[in-house]
Amino acid sequence: MQHAVVSRDEWLDARRSLLTREKAVTKARDKLNAERLALPWVAVDKDYVFDTADGRRSLAELFDGRSQLLVYHFMFGPDWDAGCTGCSFFADHIDGMLVHLNNHDVTLVCASRAPLDKIEAYKRRMGWQFPWVSSNGSDFNFDYHVSFTEEELASGSVEYNFTTIPRERAHDELPGMSAFYKDDQGRIFHTYSNYARGGEEGLGALMMLDYAPLGRNETGTLSFLKRRDEYDQKPVAGCCSG
Questions:
Q1: In the chain, N or C: fewer CB atoms in 10 Å?
Q2: Measured between alpha carbons, how far is 215 from 220 in angstroms, rounded to an integer?
Q3: Is 74 in contact with 87 (CB distance < 8 Å)?
Q4: Nearest to 92, CA basis, from 116, 110, 113
Q5: 150 Cβ contact partners less than 8 Å away, ≥ 6 residues apart
Q6: Can you give the C-alpha Rg of the chain in angstroms?
Q7: Which DSSP symbol is given to 54?
Q8: What is the spatial distance between Cα 164 and Cα 215, in angstroms, rounded to a whole number?
Q9: Mapping DSSP to helix (H, G, I), strand (E, B) and coil, where does residue 240 land?
């Protein structure tokens, strides 16, 4: 992109014009957030069990004594050697925010279908501390439409991001986040899920790139991205798109 070089006064005029639109986006986001909070809830009536570093735990136990639970659906299939690059990018943001979420009555965990030993090994490689559980052997990933069976993929399309997408846009695993609430009687409700780029605001580094002079400088969604320990290696293809 070619940029005009102008006087400070001309730049201020352009910047103030953009600020007006930025404020409109902020107000629109506030309204959208209020509408998200007003969504109806769905009771969770299935007993999901996960493998964790502290043994087998139910969905209720993942709340860890809090009333709100965010589950990041981390793309890491049972036969994968490493977690998804894009999901790893999100995970790089988690440890610093956990203390703030926990003190706001929110627990955040990652969940993947990879077996726990693979998860723990990859977690050590990346140097992460956040809770990460294995949903392997349960219907959890399938029920929340982030994992797909061979039969579903062979059919030519899958249900993802509240619509039907063609096989060529699907993997056996796809990313997302789901929110749950547990009331005083121990009842659990599914309150929200987002998929594909729906959770992009959680990627703080990506938001900072939007302020940089060259922006994201992408040729495709997250095309610049590598795992944190691979930046001195050959680029790898991104696996999160939408």
A1: N
A2: 13
A3: yes
A4: 110
A5: 172
A6: 20
A7: T
A8: 31
A9: coil
Q: Which residues are CB-contacts of 68 (< 8 A; sequence separation ≥ 6)? A: 105, 106, 107, 179, 180, 181, 182
The band of 240, judged by pLDDT with boundaries at 50, 70 and 90, is low
- 170-226 pLDDT per residue, tens: 889 999 999 999 999 999 999 999 999 999 999 999 999 999 999 998 888 899 999
Residue in this structure with the two tokens 């399938």, named with its chain if needed: 142
CA contacts within 13 A on the Cβ side of 150: 0
Q: What is the pTM of this model?
A: 0.91
List pLDDT tens digits, range 60-105.
999 999 999 999 999 999 999 999 999 999 999 999 999 999 999 9
Residue 38 CB contacts under 8 Å (≥ 6 apart), including other chains: none
Residue with tokens 């299939």: 77
Cβ partners under 8 Å of residue 53, min gap 6: 116, 120, 131
Chain centroid to CA 61:
21
Q: Which residues pair with 42 in a beta bridge?
A: 190
- Which pLDDT does position 237 carry in this prediction? 52
Give the start-to-end residue ranges of the domains of the chain. Answer: 42-202
- Taking alpha carbons only, the member of 63, 46, 19, 208 closest to residue 139 is 46
Q: Which fold has domain 42-202?
A: Glutaredoxin (3.40.30)
Tell me the average pLDDT across 53-57.
96
